[in-house]
Amino acid sequence: MTHIFVNVPTDDVERAKAFYTSLGATINPLFTDENAACIVWDDNVFMMVLHRDYFATFTDKPIADPKTTAQVQIGLSRESREAVDRALEAGLANGGSEPRPAQDYVFMYSRDLDDPDGNSLAFIYMEPQAAEQGPEAFLAQQGQNA
């Protein structure tokens, strides 16, 4: 079984913990201290939010400032369009920002959310038929073009 661990930098571990738990994630206290927080999305997907200085001990490369540089966007699926909107509402109410308008492709709906440090998340809902058949087949069934 593969588990996904995504490491992101933060200037404030406590603020990051509050932000991510407001989105519905939990904290694994076994891997959380003043330098890092283990953010649990589900049984296989985790984020390690690492204080910037601690993050720097894992690489010899410069640490990008996520407020000004995009290197990765973390996409998290949700069970409905409404759940996507709820995630954004919670994130915006807890210090996040929405860098661009919602993207509605009929078969897929997504909204981007930057955390208070600028790390980029995308909350995504995809119509189950589109996920199974592909977007072109789904749109054709809906009488629309891809």
Structural account:
There is one protein chain. The chain is α/β, with parallel strands linked by helices. The protein folds into 2 domains: 1-59, 2,3-Dihydroxybiphenyl 1,2-Dioxygenase, domain 1 (Roll), CATH 3.10.180; 72-146, 2,3-Dihydroxybiphenyl 1,2-Dioxygenase, domain 1. 27% of the residues lie in helices and 29% in strands. It has helices spanning 13-22, 52-55, 81-93, 128-133, 135-141; strands at residues 4-10, 26-28, 36-40, 45-51, 73-77, 103-104, 108-114, 120-126. The strands form 2 sheets. It has a 4-stranded mixed beta sheet with strand order 1-4-3-2. Strands 5-8-7-6 form a 4-stranded mixed beta sheet. A hairpin with a 7-residue loop joins strand 2 (26-28) and strand 3. The longest helix has 13 residues, at 81-93. The radius of gyration is 17 Å and the shape is elongated. It starts with a strand and ends in a 5-residue tail after the last helix. The mean pLDDT is 94.
